[in-house]
Design a protein that fits this description.
The chain has 161 residues and is mainly beta. It is built from no helices and 11 strands. Strands 7-8-9-10-11 form a 5-stranded mixed beta barrel. Strands 1-2 form a two-stranded antiparallel ribbon. Strands 3-4 form a two-stranded antiparallel sheet. The radius of gyration is 25 Å and the shape is elongated.
Amino acid sequence: RTPVVWRGNVVYGEGHRFAIWARVTVTASIVQVVAAESLRAGEVVELRQLRLETTQGFPLSAKIASSVEQVAGLLPLRTLPAGSAIHLDQLRAPFDISRGDVVDVEVRSGATRLSFSGKAETSGRTGDAVSIRNESNNRLFQARVDGKGKALVVTRVPQVK
């Protein structure tokens, strides 16, 4: 609803142009996701907590959620009051492994595969490195998160000379 400066060019004749700017207000009907109730920071958002609303606003704002599927299952970074429009940068994906979880660990070394359970000492999402405690010997090791409750360790096969 606030004016913005639009910059452009007027093109005329053979390859002639001159710069022009204008202060404009651009609005259109947009669909946005709104919190139907207060969304608490760090708690997974459920479909029942969301509703769609049509309003007037800037049509090209990529940060505003336009479908409930974009929001459901994510975690608000801060508490969002009921009735507020939800921006995608206010959310994050939940951890695939949380500290304290018992996780399935797979170790790969060439064609060899070893599977066991360990306890997560740090939290992470798919692709993140996490610390896992081997409960049989109480040692810590690093693994890569490979999905919900799964960690992967890939070792290099030593070259024999």
